[in-house]
User: Fold these one by one.
Assistant:
Number 1:
Amino acid sequence: MRRVRQVRPLADPGVTLERLGSEAEPPRIVDARVVEDATMRARLVPGAPAAEFAAFLDGAQQSRVVGVDLSAPIVFATVAAAVRVRVERRLVTWRQPVVQRRVYVPLDYTDRAAFEAAFGPGQLVDTTEPDDSGEIPSPHPAALLERARQAVSRDRDLLEQRLAEQWCREEHRPLFIDGGIGASEAVAKSGCAIGVIKSHRTLWAGGDALRIVLGLRAGERSSVIAVAHRERARVLSWYLRLRAAEGHDTLWGLIRVEVAECADPTERADRVSRWVLAEATPLASPDSRWDKMAYGIRNTEEFLRAIV
């Protein structure tokens, strides 16, 4: 931060913004159209689990406040994404991981010209760009930090999306993606992309359908639904219980799978569910999310942690 004279560097940047927490999306329930059955029901996944995924995609990020200009926090962040592919029962990196390092600055509340002169194209991100409603954040430091955190997460999502699109252009083998696939039209329409969602701030089932989803037993899936929200592409989706929830909360071991639309949702959901169930072993411990996390995703996270 010595490039900009008025910025006061921090002697102790403290913990990363990721560990401070953020304003989480409010929990909500959304009714979704069932496309497989007349109404939502539980289905036992037929057949034995089969490890058919060729590769796993995930991203990582790390951001810290490295200086301040009055109330304006200056954030430095590294974001990265990688695909780890199975080769002779080992996971190795496909192509090259993508890594991006940027400085996130609320330029409306600091010396814009000084920062633009100090950093080259692509190195600087303005965290006071207007949002969808045309509003810029207030100069409150907490509001500016939240904006920076959102910008870092958005950059990470874009790197993951870029790698997913590259895989779908060059490969036809199944790719396990940590998260949804609807952000990219190309990925959402690809038969090789399978998104697995572990968090459930939005539950795509209401009323009786919600009771069925939360009541799924290990090895059961829900009926297939159609999911399309905000500016994301429409995909097919279903809930799948990886592990028995007895003794745990109702979301224990529950994931949601997303795939491209297809002519036979039942066959597709059963087949992909067998693949996902196979990834429940070996355990992704000691990660606290081991009840929902595939070991291949944990391996990818460990690899990324070493480079961010």
Note: The first strand starts at residue 8 and ends at 9.
Number 2:
Amino acid sequence: MVENHSLGAVELEPDVVVMDVAMPKANGLEAISAMRRGGVKSKILVLTMYSEEQYLMQVLRRGGNGYVLKRSADTELMQAIRTVHAGGVFLYPSAARLLVGDRDSDDGENAGLDLLTGREREVLKLTVEGYTNQEIANQLIISVKTVDTYRSRIMEKLNLRHRSELVRYALRKGLLAPS
């Protein structure tokens, strides 16, 4: 069944194929393998909700050229398509760190902070200072949903899962003085 689904890519010869790991009638990982076995030269970009390393590594091993999380698609999808179309590999920030190892150590280096935009740094600082989403939104004149989006991106870029990890990170980086 997967072989039949990849035929369209052979016939149409798209520059970039955007697909998911989980699809209704096919396993995306198997589809990537089938497309490569079938001689599909298209670049393959996976757009998925799965951030687990196991999927990322399988996509790359099977011939995928990029990996974007759906929660970041609004800002990263076009860049990812352009990158893979140009022959590059696109990985969301915390995935890239998985592959090269976490080089954001406690030696004073600010590599993780360098990944953040100015607005993300503002949201990070206010978050770790204990402001609520509503207070941050009011202070920065943005919506509460936008604050949530920024915080999700910050946590993804810094490879953090909980608000408490944000606070510990900020303390290590000198963004927040211990009380």
Note: The chain has ten helices and four strands.
Number 3:
Amino acid sequence: MKPPTASPTLRRSVVLAATLVEEARQAAPESLRGNFNRLVQKALEEYIRAQKNRVFEESMALMARDPAIAYECREASEGLAHAEGDGLGDGS
């Protein structure tokens, strides 16, 4: 089996305000200040992660408000209540 290959690299040109670039450099960790390409890559990765987290949190909040899911959770909790006294203590 062939080893996985790295994702292809794409070149893109963007127009950014000089003040935005300078502010990004100043806010960046020292290790990224000298490599704007890497700084942009890290910023995009962080943005993607934040968006995925936001979508997940919104989905969880929506599920929490769903009466059918709340009912199922109550049923499961009640059904497993007998296991709470399994002799393991409170974890202290």
Note: The chain is about 60% helix and 0% strand.
